[in-house]
Specification:
The protein is mainly alpha-helical and 157 residues long. It contains 5 helices and 2 strands, in the order H-H-E-E-H-H-H.
Length: 157
């Protein structure tokens, strides 16, 4: 189950990287990558949720990545409980609705790729915050959301 918990972070990250390197002219590819990323992450979450339910809903904690070792490890760790489960479901549906609506709404706009990239970055940061098992992970997610919001607002101001 720890591998599936890690997959809940890796899928949005992979989708963001793929979308980032997709040429701006390929709007359909950008959209397909974004929607596929969100749907695959939700399917992985459903599978994880079924396994989590079968094992009687325990609180799960795992170490995702060790960043630095001094007296103690500075690491990215993930934590999953019932509150995280509820917020992940809400986050999925809101992001999915935004992406569905945005495809037609900003079609052929200059910032089409930037919008979808920033939405995936924002979604990734939100997943980091929701699954944060320590302060360092929470900070990383918070900064991802901050960077995503900055790039959203960069062209508006």
């Amino acid at each position: 189950m720890e591998l599936l918990l890690k997959l809940l972070i890796l899928l949005p990250f992979i989708g963001y990287i793929l979308s980032f390197f997709t040429p701006s002219k390929k709007e359909n590819s950008i959209y397909v990558i974004s929607i596929t990323t969100i749907i695959l992450q939700f399917l992985a979450f459903l599978y994880f949720g079924i396994l989590w339910g079968i094992s009687k809903f325990p609180d799960l904690s795992t170490n995702f990545l060790n960043l630095y070792k001094a007296d103690d490890y500075i690491s990215i760790s993930l934590f999953f409980d019932s509150l995280t489960c509820a917020y992940l479901i809400v986050t999925f549906f809101i992001t999915f609705a935004v992406l569905l609506f945005s495809r037609a709404y900003i079609h052929r706009e200059k910032g089409y790729k930037r919008f979808f990239n920033n939405t995936l970055l924002f979604y990734l940061g939100l997943n980091f915050i929701l699954l944060a098992g320590n302060f360092e992970t929470l900070f990383i997610g918070w900064e991802m959301i901050g960077v995503g919001k900055f790039f959203f607002l960069d062209k508006l101001l």
